[in-house]
Amino acid sequence: ASSATRPSVVPPKDLESFQTHLNQSTRILALLGAGLSASSGLPTFRGAGGLWRTHDATSLATPQAFERDPGLVWQFYSYRRHMALKAKPNPAHYALAELARKKEDFVTLTQNVDGLSPRALHPASQLKLIHGSLFDVKCSDFFCTYVEKDNYTDPIVPALAIPTDESDPTTTSALAARGPQPHELDISDENVALPELDYNHLPKCPECKRGLLRPGVVWFGEQLPYGIINDIEEYLGKRQKIDLIMVIGTSAKVFPAAGYVDIARARGAKVAIINMDPNDIPAGGLYDGDWFFQGDAAQIVPEILK
Ligand code: BV8
Q: PROSITE patterns, per this entry (predicted)?
């Protein structure tokens, strides 16, 4: 059913009180997580997609994993680039972009690296990619500063092409329905053999000619991009009141991102949580007057922001 006829998923009184507050708000933050892109077909970290071939996805998102097995880590990220390129922004991505056009002091802090908020034409100056992007690549050599933004080459090198199986008819039907293109093997499935890739197969830095290129994302144990930290500290640091923070599709367990909820609250912000799981409340809990809208962000966000 189109959104016009679809029954409301938000309790009317909550919707009314939220929209009254939203309309009166000027300084608004949103903290986005993987749940926002779930309806676009991209797996979340803790959901089924959180285990990539028996590897906990977060165990691959570290400099140590890249050091130990750059081929495996690149196949994980190349797969996510491939899936994100095939995915489309959903109504929630567009609704947040629309709000940013209406409210110049609304800033979105996204933990997502899937590129869907930029593709929904979210005003760039009001969108902070706090954990980087799958589509930025940079040199992994400590002394080299090479960074390439907006690299959408898929695969980024031939060796990272998704293996195909022309012979197996099931590849076309079963797997295509799940996401991979016909004949593509579902390399997220541990039963599908991965090619052994080594240094020579992997993308090299065109500048220093010695380092491997790596995904331009923030791994665990790494600092968030300085420019973004400064922007956020500038926004939060003004000691000016913050009216509202929306916490959308995130388990809010990763720091410093999750910490922004408490900082916003300390600046007077009311908190609105949009999450499929009623138990996923940020560490600081819910206060009287806060909102919890349970359900699919792709359905709820457009509804509460309209
Ligand atoms: C830092 C990019 C320090 C990569 C990511 C020990 C050693 C080192 C560091 C630490 C340590 N202990 C703690 C830390 C800090 C660490 C941390 O917080 N760890 C956690 C696990 C405790 N943080 C860091 O390491 C950060 N850096 O601390 O640097 C430092 C200081 C000075 C100098 C040098 C260093 C960097 C963290 C960034 C890591 N990179 N991503 C990549 O994507 O591959 S994190 C990644 O995981 C995401 O970006 C996101 O942040 C997180 C996943 O969380 P979610 O997005 O919330 O996804 P999740 O699956 O968990 O939840 C989905 C939610 O959606 C659920 O609530 C679900 O119910 C809901 N949902 C599902 N479907 C829907 C839905 N909701 C609505 N609608 C639906 N349809």
A: SIRTUIN
